[in-house]
Amino acid sequence: MTETSTRKLISSGSPFEKAAGYSRAVVDGDWCFVSGTTGYDYATMKMPESAGTQTMNALLTIESALKEAGFAMSDVVRARYIVTDREYVGDVFAELGRVFGEVRPAATMIVADLIREEMKVEIEVTAKRQG
Where is the signal peptide (predicted)? Predict the structure, then answer.
């Protein structure tokens, strides 16, 4: 088996994936790389107002992609968080702590603009299949 034969692409059904030419996640062997994920409810394509709810939606989308790929949130070893305003950090931390409090991946939080005004949070994770 060649190394490339283990590559699998995961889609969340977001119209942005085809337009921008990316996958929600890429599995390569025991690794899963999840693209930056914002807080859209992809079933309705609506963005909630609060940073906390956007964080929760992003984490649910990530969890769904990981599950489809055969991984769990507990497999996450690296996370990057982008928020558009320092004022959102408390609400974002509340959701992150609920999901990653025991997992405790290596993480970085950045304050920066995102591509659409309504986006307040973007989360990217890397997971490694355990044992």
Answer: none
